UniProtKB/TrEMBL annotation:
Belongs to the ABC transporter superfamily. CDD domains: ABC_NrtD_SsuB_transporters (cd03293). Signal peptide: none annotated. This is NitT/TauT family transport system ATP-binding protein. Residues 8-235 form the ABC transporter domain. SUPFAM superfamilies: P-loop containing nucleoside triphosphate hydrolases. It comes from Actibacterium naphthalenivorans.
Amino acid sequence: MTEPVITAEKLDLTFQTNDGPVQALRDVNLTINKGDFVSFIGPSGCGKTTFLRVIAALEHPTGGHITVNGMTPDEARQSRAYGYVFQAAGLYPWRTIAGNIKLPLEIMGFPKAEQEERVKNVLQLVDLEGFGKKYPWQLSGGMQQRASIARALAFDADILLMDEPFGALDEIVRDHLNEQLLALWARTQKTIGFVTHSIPEAVYLSTKIVVMSPRPGRIADVIESPLPRERPLEIRDTPEFIAVAHRVREGLRAGHSYD
């Protein structure tokens, strides 16, 4: 039996602006199950990030219903149900990498010995052993983003929300981090929500791909991936991968034809 972790029903979100109301999400219905890796893809302004922010209680819907681990998003935030990785690494330059990772643990009041143990464990998870005493400016962009992921993993939430974490990185680094993220997901069994603009990235990483239409953001297609969970980069050359990528592309085109 699959266990629903995030459930959205008829979700709407309208922002009030100086130029009048802007509907960012309309009638979004989606279930994310425990252990899913779900990518959200669509054109700029389609509501991908907005939906992720609703899950994280950073935005509040104006209609419909959403639960996270059976709770409201606000309750889920208070129970530390998720970690959030932003597009920019957002590391404090005056803190070491270990110090950055410790920050949420300090805020949450974890004992110092447990902070040290958790930092050690997550640095191993993201292949940054030995870099805890470095400062962000001493690390490459890819390493900084891995440190940001480690910070989100530090308090061991079941859900990891990632908003285009590799969007600013070059393709070679991005491929490497995609491989590492899949390995991390396999080791931790987290439920991951991942926003991307890249079709190959979405297809390579995901068990489920949510294709969104232009504003107001609606779901144009939900694709259950037929690919095996073990995915070397070479899988991108297979007919199965190409077929999924084609369906994503068709979903993006179809989304543009909505009224």
